[in-house]
Amino acid sequence: MVASALKCHSCVSTKAYRLSGVGMVGVHEARGDPACSCATISGPPTGTVASDTAHEHAAPVGDTNHAQRSASLHSMAFPMIHPNRRTALAGIAALLALPALHRPAAAATTPLPQLTLWGPPAGPSITLVHAIASDLLRPVADKVLFKAWRTPDELRAGLTSGTMQTFVLPTQSAANLFNKGLGVRLVNVMTNGLLYLLSADPSLTSVAALKGRSVAIPFRNDTPEYVFRRLLAAERLTADGDVALHFTGTPMEAIQLLVTGRADTALLPEPAASAAILRAGMAGKTVTRVLDIQRAWGAATGLATVLPQAGLGVSAAFLAEHPAAVEALHDALVKATAAVNADPARAANDAAAPLGLPWPVIEQAIPHSNLVAQRASAVREPMEAVFRALAEFDPKIIGGALPAADFYL
What we know:
The chain is an alpha/beta fold.
């Protein structure tokens, strides 16, 4: 068993992580704090959700009880407190200062009774969960729940049925669904790219070097595949002819192919990329990020070395009914993003249970996740540049055309 020593941020203890099936289990050795209950930190495979049942989370931020945070949960609720008179008056003044676009003149200032935020087990969802845990969404709703969507198919089903009203999704998926008439609007961009190519071979530092090699990619017909195929085309390489693509149902399955040597490389988003590095180390192997896909994208397309990859979307119905809540939600995410980037350790503790990953993985992933909170309308130009580059490969990726102006909020 290969183990690595890691510090617990709440009880200053040592954890040794060992490989256990497809998950990771933490072995806790208490140091002078017998009250600490962080006996284990475990999680299901990356990209999966153990349960859709909401969990009431009433413990204050900073509570040293890790057991609850470390459970295999993928949804959680945080009760909110109604604002007092002074807070309400301040909220009214702030609302009046907001732009009038999309908002009726007498928009309600009372928080919604409940709001569910959906997101993938990836970087932007760290921001969502931290915003909930830090009470930053108090002006938005009395109770806010986070639920993880597991696959692109689950996301599309939720949007089609109307089950999902506020959600994080890939920007190209949002454009595609908007063009198909599903009423998706993009509020902001929450990451400027979090894709990396990982390998045990340190020489594979370019797309051209992949000729004759194999790449494990999670999720067929989704953002990682589209971006990678565009990069191959720039090098005049073909999938399966020059580079073998192995598609998997989850990032964890792609990690398994990489760590066991059945794939030369794996194309992974954060925090799956950080999980692969840690998992390989436990198996006595060295895996590194050999290629930053954001930089490779810039080199291949002549665009900036950023990929506005995912953001917060809302349904047209939710926007029409709760425009003030949409504005307040974005404002809260701006604050939450700054807090996550400033204190990855705290954000990782908040996100470990909902994302089903050990906090060390999330903490290591945050600096590589390029987390931002930029209004979609403010970054429309760079997004359209990415959409055009993807459409050169296949226009159907974005639904056949660039989305109209009202797509960008």
